[in-house]
Design brief:
The protein is an alpha/beta fold. The protein contains two helices and three strands, in the order βαβαβ.
Length: 103
């Protein structure tokens, strides 16, 4: 309470944002000739990514599809795991990363 009767100091429940905004990459207009990497640990990935891969192969020419089984775990819980995932994405030359399947 402040010094005057009936007057209160109120703190705002809205905090100051500490996150840094990172712009998204522009959309890829055509997947032909691209390398698509499917990440692990998504819902029923072993079933759905086979169907997604078949769809991409039918609709886009000359793609490389890296199966979710050929990728490391996606839940980086430490900076070391995050660095490892980034290294693998670069080594496999991933143009597109499937991080989920919407199933």
């Amino acid at each position: 309470m402040s010094g005057s009767p009936g007057v209160y100091k109120v703190l705002s429940p809205v905090g100051i944002s500490t996150s840094k905004r990172v712009p998204l990459a522009p959309p890829i207009p055509d997947l032909s000739g691209k390398t698509i990497c499917a990440l692990r640990h998504t819902f029923r990935a072993d079933e759905t990514f086979q169907m997604i891969e078949a769809f991409f192969r039918q609709n886009y020419g000359n793609i490389t599809f890296i199966s979710n089984q050929d990728m490391p775990d996606v839940n980086p819980t430490s900076p070391e795991q995050e660095v490892r995932l980034i290294k693998v994405l670069r080594e496999k030359r991933c143009d597109v990363v499937l991080a989920g399947n919407g199933a």
